[in-house]
Design brief:
This protein is about 50% helix and about 15% strand. The strands form two sheets. It has a four-stranded parallel beta sheet with strand order 1-2-3-4, sandwiched between helices. It has one domain: TIM Barrel, CATH 3.20.20.140. It contains 13 helices and eight strands. The protein is globular and about 50 Å long. The protein is an alpha/beta fold. Bound molecules: adenine and zinc ion (ZN). Adenine binds next to loops.
Length: about 325
């Protein structure tokens, strides 16, 4: 079995961040939107650093203007993921980019994305669940209608709530109202922390937002007591090594803390975050983990099992995906 064909469970992707540049250029041409400035001469996304990345990301999102565009996006993204052996994927979706946080508009976007996911499941044999995320640098007030959108559409397809965006904007506790709203609706929770912030950001996120999973969390490596707390609580990290290396949130692959986090007893999983932005795929992540840390079948099975156990899905889906992992 090759790295490409090994089955993979991926918990941390941003739906719009999975859009190939050619897909976004196509939408821009259809709508006569000039976003040529966000591309390099070779057609890849162009940005200088993380803050600029967020701006380029939002510029790309301006080409996605209605439910039909999101339908096409979901189909394109899942076809690509399935071609890299991904059997189950979770993607962050944002009402802020889909109708501006209006619940009625959001329902139409969800219906389109869910229909596309059902078709992709039949065509490409991959399951998608979606996690509604508020955007941290839009502020705590914008997070409230986003959490309402999440709670109103929580079900078979929208299965969790979280937060992405500029991590250094405010403290986790500023967003407690939105996370409380989602938790009270019964939603499982995740939040980006410790990608740019220190271990204190991870600790405060766990304490104030009561999430089960942390997006990235790599800077927890700097605090042994926090590692022990996370290992004991079973906190799951959605680690995205290629993203961290590309954005310089960590040193190179050899310096990346993913193996040291595992050695400390923390449950880690592996994801791509925004693959075309970071020149990665799940195949590339697995290849680099094998090359850098000597990971083999047992290690890949371990991260897949961690991901499946922590997936925000119903038990029927979990059982179905477990069978696909067994038959690898
Ligand atoms: N939005 C898209 N990608 C992101 C990342 N890596 N961190 C925070 N917000 C994001
Ligand atoms: Zn992310």
């Amino acid at each position: 079995m090759t790295y490409r064909t090994m089955p993979k469970v991926e918990l941390h992707t941003h739906l719009e961040g999975c859009a190939p540049p050619s897909f976004i250029r196509g939408l821009a041409a259809e709508k006569s939107i000039d976003i040529s400035g966000i591309f390099n001469a070779d057609g890849t996304y162009a940005y200088r650093d993380f803050d600029h990345f967020l701006k380029v990301y939002e510029a790309a999102c301006t080409t996605l203007q209605g439910p039909q565009d999101f339908y096409r996006l979901v189909k394109a993204v899942l076809e690509e993921s399935a071609s890299h052996g991904v059997v189950y994927q979770e993607a962050f979706v944002s009402p802020d980019f889909c109708g501006g946080g209006d619940v009625a508009a959001w329902r139409d976007y969800v219906a389109a994305m869910e229909a596309a996911a059902a078709e992709a499941e039949a065509e490409f044999n991959i399951t998608l669940k979606a996690i509604v995320t508020c955007i941290r640098h839009f502020g705590p007030d914008a997070a409230k209608p986003t959490a309402l959108c999440a709670a109103e559409t929580f079900g078979d397809f929208i299965t969790g709530f979280g937060m992405a965006g500029g991590e250094l904007a405010g403290r986790p506790g500023d967003f407690a109202y939105a996370f409380d709203q989602a938790r009270e609706a019964g939603m499982p929770l995740t939040c980006h922390a410790g990608e740019w912030g220190g271990p204190d950001m991870v600790a405060d996120t766990l304490r104030d937002l009561k999430v089960q999973r942390i997006g990235h969390g790599i800077n927890a490596i700097k605090d042994p007591a926090l590692l022990e707390q996370m290992a004991e609580a079973g906190t799951v990290l959605e680690v995205c090594p290629g993203s961290n290396v590309f954005l310089k949130a960590s040193g190179g692959w050899a310096q990346h803390p993913i193996q040291r986090l595992r050695d400390a007893g923390v449950k880690v999983t592996v994801s791509t975050d925004d693959p075309p932005f970071f020149g990665t795929t799940m195949t590339h992540e697995f290849e680099m983990l094998a090359k850098t840390f000597g990971w083999g079948d047992e290690d890949f099975n371990d991260v897949n099992q961690n991901a499946l156990a922590a997936a925000f899905c119903d038990d029927e889906t979990r059982t179905k995906i477990a069978k696909r992992l067994e038959n690898r």
